[in-house]
């Protein structure tokens, strides 16, 4: 590696550390084989105030100065390119003269040597500045939908199986941890000895219920035209970062587990346990173009998910609500978007026309599943401060957990659906192939939970609990997957 390249890389790493919200960035470990990333630098340059405001409402206050820096750097890069044009043209002409000269070439060579140092210096400055600008632009979160509240509070959309004027009454014993232990459904003690806190054994009917939930969620999605995929749970760390998942969150708490490498593998790309199937599914089309006529592509997959931050803030330390490992059925889709507009931001309605349709379809699928499971739920438009880096808009559905009445009035998230526009596809180089051969557009991505097993299972135990009988009523739609079983009774 040349001295100039080493200096440029060193400068880039210092920049990434300076502008990262975490102790380190998975971007630092990107191998040469990783997809090339294309942050929207021109859009940031032309809309500095918008991006500054967006950083604040997204709870990225430390990033507020970055859009201005990106804009200043972009202008300086243009100046450097202009400065090098003349020198490069002169060198090109001198090279032609040198090739054509048969006599003394020393004067020509001397002229070329005189020009090259200044040109090399300008090029080195440009390389470092370009790397710095790319890193800063990539550190910014996605823009935010006008539908998204910016006051820090979610906005109520509607209810499922719930009358706010006449809420249901629950037995004090409607606690899934107590129910699970009483009926021999969940073993936390053995799991703690085996794997540590945040793990669990699902036993007997609960193990069957897990499989029933997976099969039911997949069947609903399939009936709506989604193709089934079984994705891996181990992913390259740089792919997780490209999807918007960092090793640590803004509270400096670990989010993703990285897999330790042996000494012989040092220098190879690191791998992480996937926090969600969104990561491997999004990566399926990394470095690829999708023919426009194939869009939208809609996939649904069941996988094991791993969350390192479970219970990290000292809450939900009991039961199945917040755990380290769980099964989740995930929906992921790529869709079309308007052509690039170099004059500024595209009209929001046009920009999200296709992705908004997919978001509505995902939420409709979630509502069908939860409604048929008989769970009382509420649908929320989530605030900007709650959105992950990649999300442009997010809708959550929360179910009623009687055991959580003292926390959030019993409501707890069971599904989430997000529009990510081109945030992920720009970082994974997933483009749309137009009929005319153009590859200028980056596909929009949309993702949503079809069903997260532990929380839904816990909600079924609590809402289906009949204290006077000491049993749990199994939702009608799941009985066919459980041999016709109607109740989980006392042993």
From TrEMBL:
<dbReference type="InterPro" id="IPR002314">
    <property type="entry name" value="aa-tRNA-synt_IIb"/>
</dbReference>
<dbReference type="GO" id="GO:0004828">
    <property type="term" value="F:serine-tRNA ligase activity"/>
</dbReference>
<keyword id="KW-0067">ATP-binding</keyword>
<dbReference type="InterPro" id="IPR015866">
    <property type="entry name" value="Ser-tRNA-synth_1_N"/>
</dbReference>
<keyword id="KW-0547">Nucleotide-binding</keyword>
<keyword id="KW-0436">Ligase</keyword>
<feature type="site" description="Important for serine binding">
    <location>
        <position position="449"/>
    </location>
</feature>
<dbReference type="InterPro" id="IPR045864">
    <property type="entry name" value="aa-tRNA-synth_II/BPL/LPL"/>
</dbReference>
<dbReference type="InterPro" id="IPR010978">
    <property type="entry name" value="tRNA-bd_arm"/>
</dbReference>
<feature type="binding site">
    <location>
        <begin position="323"/>
        <end position="326"/>
    </location>
    <ligand>
        <name>ATP</name>
    </ligand>
</feature>
<protein>
    <recommendedName>
        <fullName>serine--tRNA ligase</fullName>
        <ecNumber>6.1.1.11</ecNumber>
    </recommendedName>
</protein>
<keyword id="KW-0030">Aminoacyl-tRNA synthetase</keyword>
<dbReference type="GO" id="GO:0005524">
    <property type="term" value="F:ATP binding"/>
</dbReference>
<feature type="domain" description="Aminoacyl-transfer RNA synthetases class-II family profile">
    <location>
        <begin position="224"/>
        <end position="475"/>
    </location>
</feature>
<dbReference type="Pfam" id="PF02403">
    <property type="entry name" value="Seryl_tRNA_N"/>
</dbReference>
<feature type="binding site">
    <location>
        <position position="330"/>
    </location>
    <ligand>
        <name>L-serine</name>
    </ligand>
</feature>
<feature type="binding site">
    <location>
        <position position="447"/>
    </location>
    <ligand>
        <name>L-serine</name>
    </ligand>
</feature>
<dbReference type="InterPro" id="IPR002317">
    <property type="entry name" value="Ser-tRNA-ligase_type_1"/>
</dbReference>
<feature type="binding site">
    <location>
        <begin position="413"/>
        <end position="416"/>
    </location>
    <ligand>
        <name>ATP</name>
    </ligand>
</feature>
<dbReference type="Pfam" id="PF00587">
    <property type="entry name" value="tRNA-synt_2b"/>
</dbReference>
<feature type="binding site">
    <location>
        <position position="276"/>
    </location>
    <ligand>
        <name>L-serine</name>
    </ligand>
</feature>
<feature type="binding site">
    <location>
        <begin position="307"/>
        <end position="309"/>
    </location>
    <ligand>
        <name>ATP</name>
    </ligand>
</feature>
<dbReference type="InterPro" id="IPR042103">
    <property type="entry name" value="SerRS_1_N_sf"/>
</dbReference>
<dbReference type="GO" id="GO:0006434">
    <property type="term" value="P:seryl-tRNA aminoacylation"/>
</dbReference>
<feature type="binding site">
    <location>
        <position position="307"/>
    </location>
    <ligand>
        <name>L-serine</name>
    </ligand>
</feature>
<dbReference type="InterPro" id="IPR006195">
    <property type="entry name" value="aa-tRNA-synth_II"/>
</dbReference>
């Amino acid at each position: 590696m040349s001295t100039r390249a080493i200096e440029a890389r060193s400068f880039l790493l210092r920049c990434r550390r300076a502008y990262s919200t975490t102790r380190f960035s998975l971007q630092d470990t990107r191998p040469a084989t990783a997809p090339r990333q294309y942050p929207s630098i021109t859009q940031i340059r032309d809309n500095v105030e918008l991006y500054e405001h967006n950083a604040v409402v997204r709870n990225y206050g430390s990033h507020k100065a970055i859009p201005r820096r990106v804009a200043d750097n972009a202008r300086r890069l243009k100046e450097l390119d202009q400065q090098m044009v003349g020198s490069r043209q002169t060198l090109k002409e001198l090279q032609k003269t040198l090739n054509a000269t048969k006599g003394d070439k020393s004067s020509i060579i001397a002229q070329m040597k005189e020009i090259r140092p200044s040109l090399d210096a300008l090029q080195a400055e440009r390389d470092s500045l370009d790397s710095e600008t790319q890193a800063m632009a990539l550190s910014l979160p996605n823009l935010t939908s006008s539908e998204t509240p910016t006051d820090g509070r979610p906005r109520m959309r509607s209810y499922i199986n719930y009358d706010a004027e006449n809420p249901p009454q629950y037995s004090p014993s409607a606690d899934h941890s107590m129910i699970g232990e009483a009926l021999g459904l969940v073993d936390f003690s053995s799991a703690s000895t085996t794997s540590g806190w945040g793990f669990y054994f699902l036993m007997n009917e609960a193990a069957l219920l897990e499989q029933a939930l997976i099969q039911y969620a997949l069947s609903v999605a399939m009936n709506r035209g989604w193709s089934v995929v079984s994705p891996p749970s181990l992913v390259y760390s740089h792919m997780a970062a490209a999807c918007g998942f960092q090793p640590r969150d803004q509270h400096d708490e670990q989010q993703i587990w990285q897999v330790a490498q042996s000494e012989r593998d040092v220098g190879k790309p690191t791998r992480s346990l996937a926090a969600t199937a969104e990561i491997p599914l999004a990566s399926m089309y990394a470095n690829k173009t999708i023919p426009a006529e194939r869009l939208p592509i809609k996939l649904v997959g069941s996988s094991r998910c791993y969350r390192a931050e479970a219970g990290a803030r000292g809450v939900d330390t009991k039961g199945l609500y917040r755990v380290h490992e769980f099964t989740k059925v995930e929906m992921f889709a790529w869709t079309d978007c308007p052509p690039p507009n170099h004059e500024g931001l595209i009209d929001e309605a046009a920009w999200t026309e296709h992705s908004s349709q997919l978001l509505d379809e995902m939420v409709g699928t979630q509502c069908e599943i939860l409604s048929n499971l008989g769970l009382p739920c509420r649908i929320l438009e989530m605030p900007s401060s709650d959105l992950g880096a990649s999300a442009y808009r997010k809708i959550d559905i929360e179910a009623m957990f009687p055991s959580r009445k003292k926390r959030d009035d019993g409501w707890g998230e069971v599904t989430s659906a997000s529009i990510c526009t081109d945030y992920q596809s720009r970082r994974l180089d997933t483009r749309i192939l137009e009929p005319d051969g153009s590859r200028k557009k980056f596909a929009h991505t949309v993702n949503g939970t079809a069903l997260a097993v532990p929380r839904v299972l816990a909600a079924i135990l609590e809402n289906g609990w009949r204290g006077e009988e000491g049993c749990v009523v199994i939702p009608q739609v799941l009985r066919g997957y459980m041999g016709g079983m109607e109740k989980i009774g006392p042993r």
